Amino acid sequence: MTAGPVALATSGALPHPDGDMPLLLAALARSGVRARPAVWDDPSEDWGAFSLVVVRSTWDYITRRPEFVAWARSVPRLANPAPVVGWNTDKRYLADLGGAGLPVADTTWVALGEPAVLPDGPFVVKPTVSSGSQDSARYRGDGSDADQALAHVARLHAAGRTAMVQPYLGAVDTAGESALVYLGGRLSHTVRKGPMLAVGRIPGDVEHQAVGPRPATAAEEAVAERALGAVPGVAGPAGLLYARVDLVPGDDGRPVVLELELTEPSLFLDTDPAAAGRLAAAIAERVATGPP
After folding, report:
1. 45 catalytically annotated
2. I want to staple 7 with a disulfide (CB 3.0 to 4.6 A). Which of 50, 138, 198, 264 is the partner?
């Protein structure tokens, strides 16, 4: 029996172009793998007809997460797997990582109806379910914009969304974030991400973020491997088709986990000439052998 095509799950309308998609489609074609984009909430799609469904730019799920998680559970062959999607699409997973001993950004969770306690110094308010820093904003933390921050939390609550408050780590503005990208269970490449949130930014805006290649340090690799080893339901990086671990130096200079992106992250395939080919090879292996 001939294997079906691979679906690269995307959204019907994207807030910004998916730069990874054309590179990955071209690499898959070179590898002899038939593939096409497919909109995740398109009722006409027969997901069982695909040899593999790879979640990519499904960036419109944030206001419909229960529907998206249910869709993931309905897909017979999904990468990354549905239990990972369910766990990773709510940023409260950071509490699990912290409980496992990982260095994570200090976070206060503000559930519906709970008052927000704002920290001293610069901080960020964001929803626990978001993509691309949508509905996130940075505040001064000197009292001058406390009313705006509290209003931000109130808007999230009014929309039925849990809020989170984190200190703004100053190293984001100097060292930048390191995004370690794993493909097929191995570190593929690392990029430096510049700051994305500016004081006074309107929540909901999508801003440009400067991105460029840079090598990971041994300390960053060690923390990233630990973080991926703590993902429930998979056997470390080998159980994931792709992963992105976003790190930033903490006050002591050691790497801190900002986010663990396992669902629909940009993988910055354009920053490494071989990256798209690595992902295509990993997909071809999954099609040939099935999930690990």
Report:
1. no
2. 50
Domain co-membership, 97 together with 216: yes
| pLDDT above 80: residue 197 | no
Q: Are residues 182 and 263 in the same domain?
A: yes
Q: pLDDT digits over 132-142, tens only?
A: 778 899 999 99
Instruction: Please give the tally of structural domains in the chain.
Output: 3
The residue range of the domain holding 231 is 93-102+175-194+206-269
**Mean pLDDT, to the nearest integer, of 76-102?**
97
Clarify whether residues 151 and 181 are in a common domain.
Answer: no
Enumerate the H helices of 31-177 as residue ranges: 65-74, 82-88, 93-99, 146-158, 171-174
Nearest to residue 3, comparing CAs of 72, 66, 49? 49
Out of 177, 261, 278, 286, pick the active-site residue.
261
**Do 179 and 162 belong together in one domain?**
no
Average pLDDT along the chain = 92
Kindly give the interhelix angle for 20-30 and 275-289, rounded to the nearest 10 degrees.
Answer: 60
244 is catalytic: yes
Are 204 and 137 in contact, with CB atoms under 8 Å apart? no
Domain check: are 30 and 84 in the same one? yes
- The active-site residue out of 65, 140, 192, 214 is 214
- Whether 274 maps to a domain, the answer reads no
Tokens describing residue 204: 């909901």
Does 261 qualify as catalytic in the annotation?
A: yes
- DSSP code string of 199-258: BTPPTT------EEE-PPPHHHHHHHHHHHHT-TTS-GGGG-SEEEEEEEE-TTSSEEEE
> Pick the catalytic residue: 77, 161, 244, 278?
244
pLDDT value of position 205: 46
- CATH number of the domain that 54 lies in? 3.40.50
Nearest residue to 17 via CA among 56, 61, 44, 52: 56
Beta bridge partners of 178: 192, 247
**pLDDT in the model for residue 241:** 97
